[in-house]
Design brief:
Layout (H helix, E strand, L loop, with lengths): L9 H51 L14 H10 L1
Length: about 80
Amino acid sequence: MPRLVKREDLTNAIALNSAPFNMSRILGPTLGGYAMVLLGVAGNFFLNGLSFLAVLFALTRIDYPLEIPARARVCYRACAAGWRI
């Protein structure tokens, strides 16, 4: 999430991110029970698979900003700096 929003908006973004998780705790079992009654077990698994495809599609649509990589340090210098700490 830190790559998607500015630092000053990070706290609000984390709070907004937790809202769908908490809502799914209430709606998920309710809708799953209705789907079980209407479509049966196989239909419920099919809907679950469709939901995973929807999430994968949404993840491919996220536009991450390009990161400029920090200058790579030589391995032995990095190890030496670690030992000094």
